[in-house]
């Protein structure tokens, strides 16, 4: 399963400081970036239940601007963009992977798998193989089990 966000915007404001030897300076900063996020998740069936697991994530920067509100310092920091953007990639992908690994699985787990029909019948729905994905749909092969606590109910299929 591939999930894409073609355009996202992040803006962070804060303070910064630097010290080397006796020299110390500080100021404010603004990070302004437009980016695309692409994440891949595996979806599998295990014990009749579906679950997701993160398989990959990548952040592509459309534009990136770290402004230290001082022309010289901003220029110096721009030389280190290649060291800063991987850290942002790591943070964003960490959150996306956490979402895929925990939150999405929580939503899947909350879906009803056992549906009682009055006091006559219990219908259990179980995934019996991994989902198959196409461009616009996905198919989940399921097994439906019926069970009745009443002896007077007979099923004819």
Question: SSE layout and pairings?
Answer:
Layout: E1 2-20, E2 23-46, E3 49-67, H1 71-78, H2 81-110, E4 114-117, E5 121-127, E6 132-133, E7 138-139, E8 142-147
Antiparallel strand pairs: 1-2, 2-3, 4-5, 5-8, 6-7
Compact summary:
With 157 residues, this protein is α+β, with helices and mostly antiparallel strands.
Mean pLDDT: 82
Strand order, main sheet: write it out: 1-2-3
Poorly predicted runs are none
Q: What is the H-and-E element order?
A: EEEHHEEEEE
Q: How many β-strand stretches?
A: 8
Question: What integer value in Å does the Rg equal?
Answer: 26 Å
- CA-based shape: elongated
Strand content is: over 45%
Secondary-structure-based class equals alpha+beta
Total number of helices: 2
Helix proportion? 10-25%
What composes the largest sheet? 3 strands, antiparallel
**Ends distance:** 35 Å
Give descriptors for this structure:
single chain, 157 residues, alpha+beta, 3-stranded antiparallel β-sheet
Structure overview:
The longest helix is centred in the middle third of the chain and has 30 residues, at 81-110. A hairpin with a 4-residue loop joins strand 6 (132-133) and strand 7. The protein contains 2 helices and 8 strands. It starts with a strand and ends in a 10-residue tail after the last strand. Helix content is 24%, strand content 53%. The protein is of the alpha+beta class and 157 residues long. The model has no long low-confidence stretch (mean pLDDT 82). It has a 3-stranded antiparallel sheet. The chain has a 3-stranded antiparallel sheet with strand order 4-5-8, with no helix packed on it. The radius of gyration is 26 Å and the shape is elongated.
């Amino acid at each position: 399963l591939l999930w894409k966000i073609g355009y996202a915007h992040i803006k962070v404001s804060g303070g910064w400081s630097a010290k080397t030897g006796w020299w110390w300076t500080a100021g404010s900063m603004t990070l302004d970036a437009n980016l695309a996020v692409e994440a891949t998740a595996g979806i599998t069936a295990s014990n009749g239940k579906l679950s997701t697991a993160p398989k990959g994530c990548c952040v592509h920067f459309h534009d990136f601007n770290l402004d230290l509100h001082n022309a010289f310092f901003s220029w110096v920091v721009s030389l280190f963009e290649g060291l800063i953007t991987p850290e942002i990639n790591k943070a964003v992908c960490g959150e996306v992977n956490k979402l895929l690994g925990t939150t999405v699985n929580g939503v899947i787990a909350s879906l009803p798998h056992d549906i009682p029909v009055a006091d006559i019948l219990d219908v259990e729905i179980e995934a019996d193989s991994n989902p198959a994905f196409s461009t616009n749909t996905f198919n989940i092969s399921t097994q439906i089990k019926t069970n009745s606590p009443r002896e007077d109910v007979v099923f004819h299929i």
